[in-house]
Design brief:
The chain is α/β, with parallel strands linked by helices. It folds into two domains: 211 residues, 2-enoyl-CoA Hydratase, Chain A, domain 1, CATH 3.90.226; 116 residues, no CATH class. Helices cover 46% and strands 14% of the residues. The strands form three sheets. A seven-stranded mixed sheet has the order 1-2-3-4-5-7-12, sandwiched between helices. A three-stranded mixed sheet has the order 6-8-11, covered by helices on one side. Strands 9-10 form a two-stranded antiparallel ribbon. β2 and β3 form a beta hairpin. α3 packs parallel to α5 and α9 runs antiparallel to α10. The chain is elongated.
Length: 349
């Protein structure tokens, strides 16, 4: 297999073709061979790596016909990995984990973003939850971190079952991907071995590393007083709680599917209460999307842009029976409460 020979050649003797080395102990290196760019990422992913990776991508743009990212890393900063993944995805690069190479945690998230995902029977690709480390040194799963991962996986177009799988393992363990499991989850993987392989990965516990922390911020700092005098406050609170739970489990794709199901049900009930619930879900989802997209410098998810929301609300208002229960300024009233409640739910987790 031609591509396998080229990849092995590049991976085993990268220094012979080196045209660019970053100043961070050669964690990221570039080689060019036969009109293809090969970028290797090794060691732990730290602050600044995504910026360095972006410079390399921009430097080879237009000079090569194809690109590959070769991965051998224990993981690291999740936000950096997500930025790298989005960048390589947008530029059509494929991802590779070669023989005996380990690609864990944040590294595995990068691998998922590949235009083509390549591995061998001895590649070790492992996933687990994002986490923070408390004062006693214990790894605590990060709800916001896992939500950010869910958002990212939606951006690179993987299905909801992959989101659940990626965030299933506790911080101190791994879910090691096999070819058979990848097929089950709908993850397309190209095997460099000619024979059918089902043994990729291994069950090996791993201790969390300090460099694998994800730094998260509250969704926003809006005031949080309870406006009980406004209509159906409890309905909005319920929508906020359910929306946050769904996002933390399945990411932005989960919210997309929830919104579709919600408005379908609202069209059957035809009540202002059901309209308010779906409206709140959409407002919270759009808000989460805008915050996270800003954090990772990514484009907004089109389903939750202002135009999409307005289009859905306009159609929905036409079939609501008790329109008099929808205040004229419901965007200001319900929207503010919805975001308020989303923040309160996130802070309580």
């Amino acid at each position: 297999m031609y591509i396998a020979r080229i990849l092995m050649k590049i991976f085993t003797s990268l220094c012979c073709f080196l045209t660019f080395v970053n100043t961070r102990k050669a964690d990221i290196e570039l080689a060019i061979e036969n009109d293809s760019a090969f970028i290797s990422i090794t060691k732990e992913i730290v602050d600044g790596d995504s910026e360095e990776f972006s410079k390399i991508i921009k430097g080879v743009k237009g000079l090569v016909k194809s690109g590959f990212v070769l991965l051998d890393s224990p993981g690291g900063k999740v936000a950096e990995a997500i930025s790298i993944g989005i960048e390589l995805r947008d530029n059509g690069f494929s991802t590779v984990v070669m023989d005996q190479a380990d690609c864990q945690s944040a590294c595995a998230l990068i691998w998922l973003a590949g235009n083509k995902r390549i591995a061998t029977s001895t590649s070790r690709i492992g996933f687990h939850q994002t986490y923070t480390v408390n004062q006693s040194g214990r790894a605590i799963p990060s709800i916001q971190g896992n939500a950010l991962v869910g958002y990212y996986l939606g951006k690179i177009n993987v299905n909801a079952s992959v989101v659940s799988y990626v965030t299933a393992a506790a911080p101190e363990t791994f879910e090691w991907l096999s070819f058979s499991k990848a097929k089950e989850l709908g993850i397309n993987v190209i095997a460099l071995n000619d024979a059918e392989q089902t043994t990729m990965g291994r069950n090996v516990p791993s201790k969390p590393s300090q460099n694998q922390r994800i730094t998260t911020q509250p969704l926003a700092g809006l005031p949080t007083k309870q406006p009980d005098e406004l209509p159906n406050y409890k309905n909005i609170h319920r929508a906020a709680k359910n929306t946050m739970n769904k996002y933390q489990k399945d990411g932005i794709l989960g919210l997309h599917n929830s919104s579709i199901a919600c408005w379908k049900r609202a069209s059957e009930l035809r009540t202002s209460k059901s309209f308010q619930y779906c409206f709140s879900l959409d407002i919270i989802s759009a808000y989460i999307d805008s915050v996270v997209a800003g954090d990772v410098v990514a484009k907004r998810y089109l389903f939750f842009t202002s135009k999409s929301l307005i289009d859905r609300q306009t159609v929905a208002q036409s079939f609501v029976f008790d329109k008099e229960n929808i205040p004229n300024d419901y965007v200001n009233k319900w929207g503010r409460i919805a975001i308020d409640q989303a923040n309160k739910v996130a802070s309580a987790k």
